[in-house]
Amino acid sequence: MTITETREPAGAQRTATIWTAVCRRDELEPLWGEAALVGASQIALFLLPDGRLFAVSNLDPATGAAVISRGIVGSKGDRPTIASPLHKDVYDLESGHCYTKPDALRLPTWRVRERDGVIEVAPRSALVAASHGTSDAAGAAAVAHLLEAVRAARPELTVLDAFVDVQQPDVPSVLDSLDAEADAVVVPLLLSAGYHVHVDLAEAAAEAETTTDVTAALGPDPRLATVLARRLREAGLRNEDHVVLAAAGSSDRRAVDDCHTAGALLAAELGRPVTVSFISAARPRVAEAVTSTRAANPGGRVVVASYLLAPGYFAGLAANAGADVTSEPLLTATSVPPRELVEIVAELYDRALV
Predict the structure, then answer these.
(1) What is the dihedral of CA 163, 166, 169, 173, to 10 degrees?
(2) Class of the 4-122 domain?
């Protein structure tokens, strides 16, 4: 089975859709599912006796096992269905609605079409990566490199850049640009869930004409602690150093709590205490934390871990807070984006579909 990828422009005001050819119609047997690997995604194709085609995720929503292609095709009224061969949960082949556990399970569906006898599929939901935005060239390049890495890891997805501030296009404009049949999953490229996630992105999703989900922020996540520790080691962290985590800060208590969780994860990763501080909006401020940590440990070095996504104004403030050493942000303009961040972005998208 030859799998090829094409991009079909959907008009000047619409975002291109990535369509992948998976097989010919004559390779499908009615009522018998066929599995295919599209990029990193497993899908199940079904041909009905009346000629209709359906494409869904091959992963059982209840267990994650790749078995849906072996399910039993049926119907509920005039709706075509597929029953999982494991727990017998029944899903609508067109919408993904679960008839047996509607509040707990949903089967991701794919767009499907036929051109010259060749069946092509495309994810129904685009991944809209919403970063804060920056006027710093290095910071903008670092975020762009992350999205390039996500596209390389998941070539079957339509991954779109969007920004909540400073840069364009903004999130509403990107959502408006989607194909009429496409949905969207907005993944905030933010380390904690504050005002931008709970208000700006939530409002953009609610006002969008297409079905739009907003995921959690990137952090807190143990994998971010792993990247932070790596950046600290690259900066020359010593066993006797005292670590201060420098987070951006927020007036939203939930975001502040996320940062304290990130500090606890870093402390566990390093096996030493970590003092959490903030660049703005919350306390203690980074300079205060550096001063108090140095006073409590005379003669010892104080090292700041930059809990920031990319270079920019805040990274400069963290570097000038008086520490002996300050690590780079999670992303830099010159290094390969950490695989952990790529994984987190992709996983947030995937979880939103289940």
Answers:
(1) 80
(2) mainly beta
Triad 347, 349, 354: Cα angle to 5° = 90
57 DSSP 8-state letter: E
What is the rounded CA–CA span in Å between residue 273 and residue 260? 12
CB 268 within 8 A of CB 274: no
Pairwise CA distance, residues 266 & 225, whole Å: 5
Q: Where are the domains of the chain?
A: 4-122, 125-219+337-349, 222-326
**Higher pLDDT among residues 194 and 146, named by residue:** 146
Instruction: Just give the CATH number of 125-219+337-349.
Output: 3.40.50.1400
What's the CA gap between 344 and 218, in Å, rounded? Answer: 7
312: Cα within 13 Å, side-chain hemisphere: 20
Instruction: Read off the pLDDT of residues 49-97 as tens digits, 9 standing for 90 and up.
Output: 999 999 999 999 999 999 999 999 999 999 999 999 999 999 999 999 9
Q: What angle do CA 45, 46, 48 make, to 5 degrees?
A: 160
Q: Is the sign of the CA dihedral 331, 334, 340, 345 positive or negative?
A: positive
Helix (H, G, I), strand (E, B) or coil at 88: coil
158-178 exposure pattern, b = at least 16 Cβ within 10 A, e = fewer? bbbbbbbeebeebbeebbbbb
174 φ, ψ to 5°? -65, -40
Say whether pTM exceeds 0.70: yes
Q: Note the pLDDT of residue 194.
A: 85
**Pair type for strands 242-247 and 302-307:** parallel
- The CATH code that applies to domain 222-326 is 3.40.50.1400
Q: What is the pLDDT of residues 206-250, one digit of tens each?
A: 999 988 999 999 999 999 999 999 999 999 999 999 999 999 999
Please state, rounded to an integer, the average pLDDT across all residues of the chain: 94
**Polymer length of the chain:** 354
